[in-house]
Amino acid sequence: MTSAVVPDHPWLLPGSLVPARAPRRTPRDWFVDSVLFVASLLWVLITHADVTSVTPEFGLNAGPAWLEEVDLLIGLLVSGALWLRRRWPVGLAVATAPLVFFSVTSGVALLVITFTVLVHRPLPLGLALVGWNLLSLPVYLAVRPDPTMPFWAAVVWTALLIGVVVAWALFVRARRQLVLSLRDRAERAEAEQQLRLDQARQLERGRIAREMHDVLAHRISLLSLHAGALEFRPDAPPEEVARAAGVIRASAHAALQDLREVIGVLRAEVGSEATPERPQPTLGDVPALVAESRDAGVRVGVVDEVTEPEAVPAGIGRSAYRIVQEGLTNARKHAPGAVVTVRLAGGPGDGLAVDIHNPWPVGAPATAIPGAGTGLVGIAERVTLAGGRLEHGRDADGGFRLTAWLPWAAR
Question: Would the pTM count as exceeding 0.90?
Fold first, then answer.
């Protein structure tokens, strides 16, 4: 019968076993129940034949003649009732409680019922049943005196037999509790492992989403800027129109390529080998990023005061690249036509400082590029994880400034 450990219950001691439900018997259960039924039935027949004989062969307790036929019927009924012990052990114990005062033939069945209650039900109930059996011994031996040994010797012998059954039941109970505890611990460890995998998967997806925001926002803002220029200057020279169209085509192709790669990663099944990621940008890619913005018509000034740019750690360089990318994207969105100043400074031991400044826009741009407003949140998280600082907002000169400091350990 399936049991479960319930540690917090007003009627249960810590670690008590209670039935979770009444499942169907397994082949092992059928075998055990059949053996116990046959053993109890044999005991009924042997004891009835012995107590009704003139000279008892096994020293079993004799009693009044009229009681033997009744006891035979009782022993047969209780033996048959053992098939119900898995479903109603406590009810069966209560129903058979009076039999401990006089029945010889039901002895094995009563021990089996006591064993079942001790193993499968709250421990106080099992101990109360054992106490009832021990207290009934004097009455039982008065009704069924043992012809082969003194009264107190028979009490001690019977108490020892009950003690052996109790010890065996407590051992089985402890073993089952250990098995249930180990099983519960294994299931919990498996669930925690699955939770860690899910969390790692979500974190990775969040990282990919932030990367996509940084990349696509930059490229789509370039698309919007050039498309707006073509819209408001339909009479532009063919060379300028062709150059703008080329930038739009290249940006759209790059954006689609980035989007296709990320969607492929997100659709990849768990356990499949992921496609190797493209090399991540570093501080050395900032000039190409600035050149791309200049080609789009953004006026960008760069001040590079990094003492050892080739020694910048890859993680710090990638974060600096994303900060510059976000600053240029925001300038194109919210301050089109403004002059953007990018300043990089620092060295080993001093950290890497990134400063992006542009004048505050006057009025709303005619073709405002929509934004989700999460770019600076992602940059702030990136800088915080790197152990740096980030500030952004309107400065004393009335412009917008994005300033970050990233730690750069000395060599």
Answer: no
